[in-house]
Design goal:
Elements (H helix, E strand, L loop, with lengths): L2 H8 L11 H29 L3 H27 L4 H8 L3
Length: 95
Amino acid sequence: MSDIFDIFTSLKKINCKRKNTNQQKEECFILQEIKRVKKQIYCDKNWLNVETDNDLIEACIYELKALEARYKFLFRIAQNRGISVKFLQEFSGEV
């Protein structure tokens, strides 16, 4: 997945309002990535519910597993950096 490499290359491009320091920009980016991955997981779960082709069902399952692993990775990074625990707790039980 090229998305992993996109995380690190786009860290420099983050432009969050009211965020000044690099640490604050990273926090904003990690939260945005978590939100984006959650949205992808939601879409893939819906796709899995309506798909009928066995090969595409298998592809969807692999995609979901990859997204869930990415979400756990981002969640762990956020927790280790002490990023907005209240925000993260809203999503922790949904994956």
